[in-house]
Write a structure and sequence with these properties.
The complex is a heterodimer of chains A (112) and B (116). By secondary structure, chain A is an all-beta fold. Chain A is built from no helices and 11 strands. In chain A, a hairpin with a 7-residue loop joins strand 9 and strand 10. The termini of chain A are far apart. Chain B has 116 residues and is mostly beta strands. Chain B has no helices and 12 strands. In chain B, strand 7 and strand 8 form a beta hairpin. Chain B starts with a strand and ends with a strand. The chains are: A mainly beta (112), B mainly beta (116). At the A-B interface, strand 4, strand 5, strand 9 and strand 10 of A face strand 5, strand 6, strand 10 and strand 11 of B.
Chain lengths: 112, 116
């Protein structure tokens, strides 16, 4: 049982490049979310999913795409990286909402 | 929409001091409330939770009580240790229907530093 696994841990991109941040969980959790963490702003929800095939936008979805083809995986795609997307990204999952979310260890992304 | 407000930080205490970090919220319905802790360089860990009014969540000496009348969920610890130095986040999880369902909303976080 590995919990929530995020890859890569660190990434540097050039402006305009695209990439996918991977998130996988082996706990059969239906709920999954992506957050970004910026200094002084807490965590802000980017996209989330309540099950395979179902996704919804969060607070800051622009510039990001997601898909949920399986229960286990919830990748986050940056379409054309911008310096404003420099941040730490966290993926989280939950079996039932009463238990809250389990977080991955994060991906630190720098866009230059 | 839903929102969470935490006390301004950073908070600096001496070891064995009493800790309070204030948290208030705005939400429709009856959300679940959480405190998460983030140690340097790590992800967030669930510290404690409460799912209904007057519930008290507790873990590792930390406590918080869900107060619906004051829409608050203040975190307390009677005697902090150096190892408690971390960032603490208050969060709410909406159980009401609509666009907020299942979404976790965070406060801005409070940095706690405990000195020996």
């Amino acid at each position: 049982n590995a919990g929530v696994t995020q890859t890569p841990k660190f990434q540097v991109l050039k402006t305009g490049q695209s990439m996918t941040l991977q998130c996988a969980q082996d706990m059969n959790h239906e709920y999954m979310s992506w957050y970004r963490q910026d200094p002084g702003m807490g965590l802000r929800l980017i996209h989330y999913s309540v099950g395979a095939g179902i996704t919804d936008q969060g607070e800051v979805p622009n510039g990001y795409n997601v898909s949920r083809s399986t229960t286990e995986d919830f990748p986050l795609r940056l379409l054309s990286a911008a310096p404003s997307q420099t941040s730490v990204y966290f993926c989280a999952s939950s079996l039932t909402l009463a238990y809250g979310y389990t977080f991955g260890s994060g991906t630190r992304l720098t866009v230059v | 929409g839903n929102s969470v407000t935490q006390m301004e930080g950073p908070v600096t205490l001496s070891e064995e001091a009493f800790l309070t970090i204030n948290c208030t919220y705005t939400a429709t319905g009856y959300p679940s409330l959480f405190w998460y802790v983030q140690y340097p360089g790590e992800g967030l860990q669930l510290l404690l939770k409460a799912t209904k009014a007057d519930d008290k969540g507790s873990n590792k000496g930390f406590e918080a009580t869900y107060r619906k009348e004051t829409t608050s969920f203040h975190l307390e610890k009677g005697s902090v240790q150096v190892s408690d130095s971390a960032v603490y986040f208050c969060a709410l999880l909406s159980n009401a229907g609509g666009t907020s369902y299942g979404k976790l909303t965070f406060g801005q976080g409070t940095i706690l530093t405990v000195h020996p």
